[in-house]
Write a structure and sequence with these properties.
Blueprint (H helix, E strand, L loop, with lengths): L4 E6 L2 H9 L8 E4 L9 E4 L1 H5 L8 H7 L4 E3 L3 H15 L6 E3 L4 E5 L10 H16 L3 E6 L2 H10 L4 E4 L19 H9 L5 H7 L1 H8 L1 H10 L19 E12 L2 H22 L3 E10 L4 E12 L2 H15 L6 E9 L20 H17 L13 H4 L3 H4 L11
Parallel strand pairs: 2-4, 7-8
Antiparallel strand pairs: 1-6, 1-7, 2-3, 5-6, 9-12, 10-11, 10-12
Length: 413
């Protein structure tokens, strides 16, 4: 049976949800972002008018307002976004049980086995577009192919409230290499330095050459350029999302020049990620850090713990250790991120070593649970480390409230 994979992407999702609640926002350039008074506010999404004015997703609020002085900023309402995300995926479920989330607003659907029960694949696609628009009030761009990689690329090409189909590799060879899934700006820049500009250039370079340039990732990108992706679309579950990572990041109000500054931000982000892990009942094994300096140069590092954990303190200590071992302050930093992966619902057996102090601490767990309870009742800033009170600029962030954690599809090699 020939595979028919859809990639469904809700158009301007956060902004579209806000416009459902506030129709007056449809007629002005608007964006959903963090606190407009703080530099850490980042544009999460924008409506069509803001996009036409030059507002870009992930840009700082001040940059967006330079591009569009009349931009209206709306704070995020994550509960509403989760609600509408689930409504849409429940609708998808009427067509297939093969639904794999890629964030709150995107999902792959495998409708291969559903087609005999409907008139055709095109009937399913058009019916989904029609029903999401009429019954929920949102619009989609749908990509269609026989694999997940090309389906994702096709949804990026598709116009709003429409679909686009990719049937063979030659259909995408003229598109920029950076349009391919997992080819980020850094990888794209490196490819350009070797005169590899398009997806077709990747395919024509060959597997061995790409592997020599980028290692294992180069080999994977080569296969992706040809649409070689044998991974199946996961089944939809009662949990709605299969979460593979939890993380938070922020752009700070001022540049970070020393270890003390870094420590404050890592503490806030670690508290947020650890609290979310405990809320969801997850234990993590791997800690990642991400940094971007004032020159917009990016750096990331990760390490595995000796045993899995759900403690904010373990995230913080590991993040600080990774930073000290791998970073310096030649150029000050402006953005920091922390995330955890290798998630599970089961705590691994802990073996106490009298000569090490990095084993899992039940005492720390009780302390963090108590702190979370206080914050839930009296607000995030009702309790915290004394050092945070001495730097209001950096410590004003409520990282758990002001950053959304969406499910992230796991990487398929």
């Amino acid at each position: 049976m020939e595979k028919v994979i859809l990639h469904c992407d809700l158009n301007c999702f956060y902004a579209s949800v806000e416009m459902l609640y506030h129709p007056e926002l449809r007629n002005v350039p608007m964006a959903v972002a963090g606190d407009p008074e703080n530099r850490h506010g980042i544009i999460l999404t924008k409506n069509v008018l803001a996009k036409k004015a030059g507002v870009k997703t992930a840009s700082a609020i001040w940059e967006a307002k330079e591009a569009c002085p009349g931009l209206v900023i709306v704070p995020p309402d994550y509960d509403s976004y989760v609600y509408f995300s689930r409504k849409v995926k429940d609708l998808y479920y009427e067509y297939t049980d093969r639904i794999e989330s890629f964030g709150l607003d995107e999902a792959w659907l495998d409708i291969s086995e559903s087609i005999p029960y409907f008139k055709s694949a095109e009937f399913i696609i058009l019916d989904i577009l029609k029903r999401v628009k009429e019954e929920i009030g949102l619009t989609l761009s749908i990509g269609v192919s026989d694999n997940k990689i090309y389906a994702k690329l096709a949804s990026d090409i598709a116009k709003e409230d429409s679909f686009y189909k990719i049937t063979k590799p030659e259909d995408v060879f003229d598109y920029p290499a950076g349009d391919l899934l997992y080819v980020g700006p850094k990888t794209s820049g490196k490819l350009k330095s070797y005169c590899i500009y398009t997806i077709g250039d990747i395919a024509r370079s060959g597997k061995d050459y790409m592997k020599a340039l980028l290692g294992k990732m180069g080999e994977t990108i080569y296969y992706f350029s040809l649409g070689y992706d044998l991974s199946s679309v996961r089944k939809y579950t009662d949990d709605y999302e299969v979460i593979k990572s939890i993380g938070n990041s922020t752009t700070t109000k001022r540049d970070l020049y020393d270890l003390d500054d870094i420590s404050i931000v890592f503490r806030l982000l670690s508290d947020s990620v650890g609290s979310r892990c405990k809320d969801a009942g997850f234990y993590f094994r791997t800690v990642h850090i991400y940094l971007r300096n004032r020159k917009l140069e990016c750096f990331s590092k990760q390490t595995k713990l000796k045993e899995n954990s759900d403690l904010s303190e373990d995230i913080y200590k590991t993040a600080m250790k990774l930073f000290k071992e791998n970073c310096d302050f030649t150029v000050p930093y402006r953005s920091i991120g922390v995330s955890v992966t290798d998630l599970s619902y089961k705590k691994e057996t802990s073996f106490i070593n009298l000569f090490e102090d990095d084993t899992y601490s039940l005492k720390e767990k009780k302390k963090e649970v108590a702190i979370d309870q206080i914050r839930n009742r009296f607000g995030y800033h009702s309790i915290g480390a004394c050092r945070l009170a001495l730097d209001k600029d950096l410590s004003s962030l409520d990282a758990k409230k002001e950053n959304v954690i969406g499910p992230v599809s796991y990487f398929r090699s």
